[in-house]
Amino acid sequence: MTKSLVIRGALLASAAFFGLHVLSAQAADDDFMKMAKDYIAQATAPVTKWDGPTSGPKAQGKKVIVYASADQRNGGASGVGDGAQEAAKVLGWDFRIIDGQGSVPARTSALTQAIALKPDGIILGTIDAAEQKPIIEQAIAAGIKVVGWHSGPGPGKIDAVPGVFTNITTDPLEVAKASGLYAVVDSGGKANVILFTDSIYAIATAKTNAEKAAVESCKTCKVLEVVDTPIGELSTRMAPLTTALLLKYKDQWTYSIGVNDLYFDFAVPSLTSAGVDPATGYPRQIAAGDGSVPAFQRIRQKQYQLATVAEPLHLHGWQTIDELNRAFAGQPASGYVAHVHLFINDNIEKDGGAKNIYDPGNGYQDEYKKIWGVK
Questions:
Q1: How far is it, in rounded angstroms, from Cα 127 to Cα 134?
Q2: Which H or E element spans position 193?
Q3: Do 64-170+313-338 and 172-310 have matching folds?
Q4: What letters, b where the CB count within 10 A reaches 16 and e where it falls short, cover 290-313?
Q5: Residue 294: C-alpha distances to residues 272, 291, 302, 304, 353 (Å)
Q6: Distance CA 374, CA 91 (A)
């Protein structure tokens, strides 16, 4: 065998190996995109069946409940308060809302006011339990039952403040996965993403880390930057921040993912001024919660926002009341975690979307009434 034949054989073997490697990598990429598309198809499907609790304590008599909201300008916090108020009325409970007005001192003041009312229960409406640990522990020590909504990094017990009966949220990691994978699918595997978060909230940090992981699981996608800016200051910060990022990244920036819709309320003027087409231009906006009224309107009208992973706010409000009822009865929390649901233009009129809210048609109000023994 001549030297040239040996070299030729080696080159052919190397080429064959390389070709197999390329084909294997392509198959892996195809499998990933299929998984992402299947996940999004499931997340956008109609919600028609109740998968929550079907048993629990009967209504525990007349109670006084205070809903301490982190910020009533936040569609998530205000929506859950509306649902809780509706459920409390069904039980004949007294209910009032105190607004934390979007700042740490104001949230502390809201909780101080709540405790002074000597209620039977307090609901934390996106108030981070770790941030307000001393005042929350004061409430618990006074015998007040405390339930959180978006008050910790995940559903169930909050390690930082174990006295909180339970924390209600959809799984933030699944919410984040849905938002990240939708950017991947919509871009055909070419998304360049800026993530917007507020690290003062544990749940926001958890979401952002999972969003980053979802985007970066696509080998041809990229997280350009993680922007940490206070939610309470978005009205003054977001417009100039958006302008600066457009100048910095130009056409590179194709998708934004915020931990909630509020970021995009204040980004739109800058996008408009920059001449970004509201329906087909970039960057496209995706929210990992909460499903606010303006967000539904933007998605329906194809005005800058592509999607929102909406929370079932009214359902969660009813759940806060059910969890308090369980706490009053000395029973454990239900452990219910609602599934993730992604609203896009194609399904925006379903599951309550026509009324600009995610309100699943699964009969949750009647199911809770059955548990409580009321009509």
A1: 13
A2: strand 192-197
A3: yes
A4: bbbebbbebbbeebbbbbbbbbbb
A5: 16, 8, 12, 11, 12
A6: 7
**pLDDT tens-digit series, residues 94-109:** 999 999 998 999 999 9
- Assigned fold of 64-170+313-338: Rossmann fold (3.40.50)
What percentage of the chain exceeds 90 in pLDDT?
86
| Complete DSSP assignment for 218-282 | STT-EEEEEEE--GGGHHHHHHHHHHHHHHHHGGG--EEEESSTHHHHTTHHHHHHTT--TTT-S
Q: Which helix (H) or strand (E) holds 140?
A: helix 133-141
Architecture of domain 172-310: 3-Layer(aba) Sandwich (3.40)
Tokens standing for 24?
């294997």
Nearest alpha carbon to residue 75 among 239, 305, 275? 305
| DSSP structure class, residue 49 | S
The Cα–Cα gap between 333 and 148 comes to 12
